[in-house]
Amino acid sequence: MPLTPPASAPSPGPSGLIAFDSTLDGGGSIFVVRADGTGLRHVSRETGSAHPAWAPDGRRIAYDNGGDGLETEVHLAATGGAVRALRRPNGAFGARWSPDGRRLAFVATAASGRPEVWVADARTLRARRLAATATLPRWSPNGRVVAVVKPGSGALVLVPSGGGRPRRLGVTASQGPSAPAWAPDGRRLAVVDPAGRLEVVDARTGGLHRLTPSTGRGGAALPAWSPDGRLIAALVGPRAVLTVMRPDGSARLALAPTDGLSAPAWSPDGRFLAFADRAHHLEVIGRAGSGRRRLTSDTAADADPAWAPAG
Q1: Mean pLDDT of the chain
Q2: Which of left, alpha, beta for 35 (phi over 0: left; psi -120 to 50: alpha)?
Q3: Which of 268, 223, 265, 262 is nearest to 58 (CA)?
């Protein structure tokens, strides 16, 4: 019979790598750090780098780069240092990897000035337009659909990633940074509406369940599902408090005030969250509020944590 640890034995702390953007070098770059706060190192040294997104293999990071007066580009960096640029004539930003790591959905600006969603092959960087007048792309867990938000109307639309007829869900979403977030089962999305209310939407029927009311004093923002789909983390209220709750809105637990701009990132095992605090430092905290730890303590502004996939 295998031995079991005593009930008083401490549980293991957070592990893995966390990517984030920081002004530590004065201009904004992508860094990675271990989840225990050690091993800080550069991934990019370009000025104006932000919003890192890990590939599913944990070996590459896509991020926005708009420094030195250039149009924004999506850069792809191997964690060993090689960098490639994904460009469009009027800029590219906001890349998100497909679940199999073979494609990237990103936003480009059309000649008319309107945003469009494109999909690029991650190996060749050849791209095709997926949706006109759309932004905030997010892949479904099976990679067959990309959820986008239509600017102006705020309509939430599901677009087949291989081509086909888009489907509107009849839900209005925020047009700020709060992108729709897919549940791991691919059946639901967490969405923040224009009034700041957090909602869970059925991806098939468009039916919705409201989790938070509109307070008029901050509302909710930047939802993120736990890997097991049992909890949603979001920034709630005027102090943008990192809060976890069940998908029906119950069992709500406030964890810590945040910078209000950076989405929380779940650890692959779902036991911890990384977030940017009000002093713009990177922190991790357990999903039940224990084990809070600051990872950065410099005078830089650190933001946009992204936890590397397991393995």
Answers
A1: 91
A2: alpha
A3: 268
